[in-house]
Specification:
SMAD_FHA_dom_sf; FhaA_N; hypothetical protein PF0899 fold; single chain; 6 helices; FHA_dom; elongated; about 240 residues; Tumour Suppressor Smad4; seven-stranded antiparallel beta sheet; 2 domains
Amino acid sequence: MGFLDSFERQVERLVGGVFAKTFTSGVHPVEIVAALKKDMDATARSITRTRVLAPHSFHVGLSALDFQRLGQLGREFVSEIRQTLEDYRIIRGYSCQEPVAIRLEEKLTLAEGMVDVRSDQVGSVVWVPTLTWNSVRYPLTRKSTILGRGTDSDVHVVAPGVSRHHAEIRWNGKRCEVVDLGSTNGTTLDGEKVTRAALPDSCTLGVGRARILFQVVPLSSAAYDALAHTPLNSAEETS
C-alpha cells in the first residue's frame, strides 16, 4: 500500500461517512499530500554526501470553497496530513531543523480544486550532535562529554548497570566517537560491544541497561550561536 492510499484510508476512518460526501468535488486530500511531497522533494538540498536538509514549514493555499470544506474536518485532519508528510520525510532520509508543520490558508486567487504549496526557505544551518536520554535531548558542543551515574557526569544516567563514569563522547567539530571508560558492564553501539568507535549520524548507545539515542541534527546558525553559550545541563525535553 502506497503513502497516498494509506493516507486516504486514515482520513476516511477519521471522518467516516462525511469523507465521500465532502470530496465529491473540489480538491482531494490526496492531492494535497502529493503536492506537499513534490515540494519537499524539490526544495530539499544536499548538505554533505550523506545529509539532505528539507524545509519543515509548509503553507497550503486553497480556494475559498475548498478552505471552508476542509476546515470542517478540524485539527485532526491537518494532523493526519502532517504525520503522513513526516513519515515520508523519514523514508526519504531527509533532516529538518524542526518538526514538520503545515498550515492551510485561503487564497482568493485560486479556483476550486487548485492547490498552491509554498515552503519556507531553508536557511543557513549547523549540524550538531545530540544525545537523547529519558526524553531529554542534550546538544553536544564541547570536545568531551561524560556519561555516567555520578552526579559530576555531564549526562547523568541513572539506570541499572551504569558506572559512575561510564563512557565519553568525543567531538572534534566534524565527527563523534564513543569511548568506554573501563565500565563494569561495557558500552554498546547498536547492540555491538565497543571500547572505542566512531558514531554514525544516527545510532543507539547502550550504557548499562540504559539506551541513549545519538543523532546529528540541523540547527539554524542563530540557534547554534545561542546554544554554544548554554550549559549542557540546560537540555531540552523532547516529545
